[in-house]
Every structure is written in structure tokens, then in C-alpha cells.
Amino acid sequence: MSTRRWPVTRTRTAPSSSESKTSSGKPVPAHPAIAINGPGQQYLSLFDQVAALVDGWDAVALDAPAPDQVRVFFQTSSSRDNALAFLKQALGSVCQMSTVTVNDQDWAARSQASLGAVRAGRIVVAPPWARPETLPPGEFLVVVRPALGFGSGHHPSTRLALRGLQKLTTSGREVIDLGTGSGVLAVAAARLGARHVTALDRDPDAIASARETLAQNGLEREVSLKVADIDGLVHPSVPILLANLTGGALTRFAPALSRLTAPGGSMVLSGILAVEADVVIEAYAQTATLAWRAQEDEWVGMVWTVGPRA
Question: What are the two backbone dihedrals, phi and then psi, of residue 165, each rounded to the nearest 5 degrees?
Fold first, then answer.
């Protein structure tokens, strides 16, 4: 299963608009979503087509139960309905769409059956039920409980961000993680020796998920969490900035991300479709130098070195 946390401010539980109940009578959050069935294009999967289209429509997560199926999750039913009208215009001639409601319990059960540990360089990301007992010297473990969202390590963009982070000297340095979602990148930075990590997300539910991840990894003191949006964010510049968002969001926020990174510092950018890479490069080339680029499937990750202030 592919799952994409929707930025801005990546795994987490999506906001609920209704509730169902378990056999014990406890309420289970249920999330408004659009189910889409149809073919991909020659160079883009259905998942990636939809991911590009819903940027800016208040989507919070995507998942793909099958190659020809995608579900898009939203903050509210009204946001879902507005996006549905747009998606029908864009894809209605080749795809079937319907509104659905999905609860956390169903998603978690499927995840637990299908998701194991994944590796990105020296970082191993594992759900609690697949936590390795030992690791070779020099490798680090990040434990994340998958939920409706992005950042469990199973999406190429998360792995690319983790690979990019490992290209940098992290030890003893301040790090900021924008759109932290599950907190997987923040925990990885702390594991790699960051002096302190500030992890931000605009969604309180994402921060709650990240808080659980910090507890799973025993890093509550090393990482600070805050509900905040990139728009209007005031924060001292840092040597390392992490942003696993979307190509559209990264392009839109290029000036802000460059200002948040200290001169000579590095920006690790991911969540970029290959077809968006040139536009992202154009946005950042004005203030930074591309130091590293890698691609996995249709996804691209980058590391930029910020130049001196004008």
C-alpha cells in the first residue's frame, strides 16, 4: 500500500468528521474521502496523477489499496465535495469516483498485516510490530506506527528525504522539520546526532501523531513539537531544514524555506514528482546551489546549499 501524507504543515491520523464504534462501544474516528478507480498514464501512476491534482484542495492523505485505486482523505466533508467536483472535471472521462468514509481501525488492521521495516541508508524505519531486535553498528532505528497519512518510510519521498539527510553532517546542529506529520524525519535527525530538532505541522492531529512517535523512540527532550504553518512562520534560521511536502508547495514556499535556512546551511527537499523537478529547481536556484539529487520511481529528492544573503 502506498500512503502519502498531504502537506503543508507528512505517518499521522487524519482528522475526523464522524465516528463509528468498535465492538467494545468505543468510538473510532471516521474520515471523509474520495475513492477513485481508473488507469494511470504512460509515465504517471494513478496515485501520482491524483497527488498532483489535489495539491491545494485541503487533502491530508492519500492511499492506494490497489494499483488502479486511490483514496484521498480530507479535513472536512465540504472540502471533499469541492475537490470531487474538480477531480471529476480532470479525470471523470477515464476514472470512476465516489465519496466514502474510512475509519482508523480498518486502515490500521490492513497496515499491520502488510507493512514491515524499511531501510534508507543507515536508517531503518519500522512499525512497532516489526521492530528489529538488533542493528549492525552505525545503523539507527526509527519506530513509527503507521496511521492514515504520510511518513511511515514506505513512500519513496520519505526514503529520499532520509537519504538526503544522511548526506549532511547532522551531529551537534539545529534542525527544523516542516510538515513533520508522523515525525519520522525529526526522529531520524535526532538519531543522527542533531543538537535539537524543531518539528512543525499546521495540523494538531499530526503533532499528536508525532508526539506518539517521539515517545516510541524516547526522544521527547531532543525534539520540540509545535502547531504552525509555513505561511508567516517566524523562526531563527537553522543549519539544516527538512521539508517533505509536494513540488507545488515547495515551489510556493521557496523564499520562506531559503530564509529559514542559515547561509551555508542545507535544505533537504522531497515529495517532488519527476515532472515537477525542473520547476522546483528554478525556484531554488536563485538562492541556493543544488548539492544532491536522487530519484526513486517517479519521485525526486534534493539537497540544496543556501548561499550568502543578498
Answer: -60, -40
- Give the residue-averaged pLDDT of 260-266: 97
What pairs with residue 273 in β-bridges?
299
Q: How many CB atoms are closer than 10 A to CB 55?
A: 18
Which grid coordinates belong to 239? 543549519
- What kind of fold does domain 2-110 have according to CATH? Alpha-Beta Plaits (3.30.70)
Q: What nine digits make up the cell of 104?
A: 482508523
pLDDT of 27: 47
Residues of the chain with CATH 3.40.50.150: 148-306
Instruction: Name 244's bridge partners.
Output: 270
Give, in degrees to the nearest 5, the angle at Cα 178 between 297 and 158.
Answer: 25
Do residues 110 and 1 make contact, with C-beta atoms less than 8 angstroms apart? yes
Q: Which residues contact 149 (CB under 8 A, 6 or more apart)?
A: 3, 5, 10, 11, 12, 13, 14, 60, 61, 181, 182, 206, 209
Domain 148-306 has CATH 3.40.50.150: yes
Q: 131 by DSSP, 3-state: which?
A: coil
pLDDT score of 21 more than 70: no
With CA atoms as reference, report the closest residue to 12 among 108, 156, 130: 108
Contact of 186 with 177, CB cutoff 8 Å = yes
The helix or strand, by DSSP H or E, that contains position 2, with its residue range, turns out to be strand 2-5
What is the mean predicted confidence (pLDDT) over 74-95? 88
Mean pLDDT (whole number) for 89-109: 78
Neighbours of 179 (CB within 10 A): 29
For the chain, the farthest-separated pair of C-alpha atoms sits apart, in whole angstroms, at: 62
